[in-house]
């Protein structure tokens, strides 16, 4: 029995490997629009697809980021300034893409732009922090997608939404996790709604990576500032000792993050260029071999594994 099961599993993965190796034709004629290209995954993906010969339309938040990217790529790549929190900016970018793609439509839309506040206890964050993160990471993804959707539908193309492993299993950073869970839900709904239009929707769920968004010094400074602004009665509940321990844990986590961004951008590229893209991609070894398996465990066991090393608050029951 076990032999037959092993053979079936082996045949399944062999078939999947064969299907996923099939590449879309005429890639050099296809346009891909990527948000958040100033740095990190978006910047890396833009350069990667440009080398492959695709027509990259890269959206940057700043002119400085756009200029730097243009200096590193071919003349095929073009840039536009985009703030995903502003409707007028999204409308202008959509018109710009429409003028560039013409009758071909937009083959690929990669919603990569994102922000993170302090990865810390939910009670320490002001509601403004939640609003900012949700506006960029979730509402921005929704508005850009809905604005560009007619162009993607025309090309029978691809939508690639960058979620996070924290969109599969949530712990710390209530604002960030909430936004990524929203991206997961929005992507699932889109995938089912658009299947009859020939549009494929994929999610990329990176683990811990070192990007500008997770810059160690900036992240730790933000964490300190967040703690300083916490109301006194909340500080007394948690205690300075807990904060110090939490600070060190976050520091070690940031320092231990992977610097190999290709582990994620290769997933994005596959979602855009494979005839049979996956629904979900887990980017990074920590995502594949720790967080994803952890997400399938019973909740009580997952809670224990995730929180067993957390420091205890000053005031406990």
From TrEMBL:
| Keyword Oxidoreductase set for record | yes
Coiled-coil stretches are none
Q: Which GO biological process categories is it annotated with?
A: steroid metabolic process
Under Gene Ontology molecular function, one entry of this record is: oxidoreductase activity
Keyword field = Oxidoreductase
Q: What domain of life? A: Eukaryota
UniProt-listed Gene3D superfamilies: NAD(P)-binding Rossmann-like Domain
InterPro entries per UniProt: NAD(P)-bd_dom_sf, Sc_DH/Rdtase_CS, SDR_fam
Q: Does the keyword Oxidoreductase apply?
A: yes
Any Pfam family matching the protein: adh_short
Family that this chain belongs to = Belongs to the short-chain dehydrogenases/reductases (SDR) family.
Q: Which PANTHER family match?
A: 17-BETA-HYDROXYSTEROID DEHYDROGENASE TYPE 6, SHORT-CHAIN DEHYDROGENASE/REDUCTASE FAMILY 9C
Q: What is this protein called?
A: 17-beta-hydroxysteroid dehydrogenase type 6
Q: Which organism is it from?
A: Diceros bicornis minor
